[in-house]
Design brief:
single chain, about 80 residues, mainly alpha, 3 helices, rod-shaped
Length: about 80
C-alpha cells in the first residue's frame, strides 16, 4: 500500500474540518460586526434621549461598540491560520 493512498483520506478529512472552521469563523466575524454596529447605535440613541440603564450610560455603550469593532477589524486583517489555507 502506498503512503499517499493511506494519507489521502486523512488529508481530505482535515480539509473538510478546516472548511467548517472557516465557515464558523466567517459567521462569528459577521455576528461581531453586527453587534458592534447595534451597540454603537443603541448607545447613540441612549445619549440622545438621556437614558441611564442600571449603571450603563450611552457613552459607555458607544465605547464598548468601538472597542468591539476594533477587535473584529483586527481579526479580519490578521485571521487565524485555518482561514488562510
Amino acid at each position: 500500500m502506498n503512503l499517499h493512498e493511506l494519507l489521502s483520506p486523512l488529508s481530505d478529512f482535515a480539509n473538510l474540518i478546516a472548511m467548517y472552521f472557516r465557515e464558523i469563523w466567517d459567521f462569528l466575524i459577521f455576528l461581531g460586526g453586527t453587534s458592534a454596529v447595534l451597540c454603537i447605535l443603541t448607545g447613540a440613541i441612549m445619549v440622545g434621549v438621556g437614558v441611564k440603564v442600571n449603571k450603563i450610560t450611552g457613552k459607555q455603550l458607544i465605547l464598548g461598540g468601538i472597542i468591539l469593532a476594533i477587535i473584529i477589524e483586527y481579526y479580519v486583517i490578521f485571521p487565524p491560520e485555518f482561514t488562510i489555507g
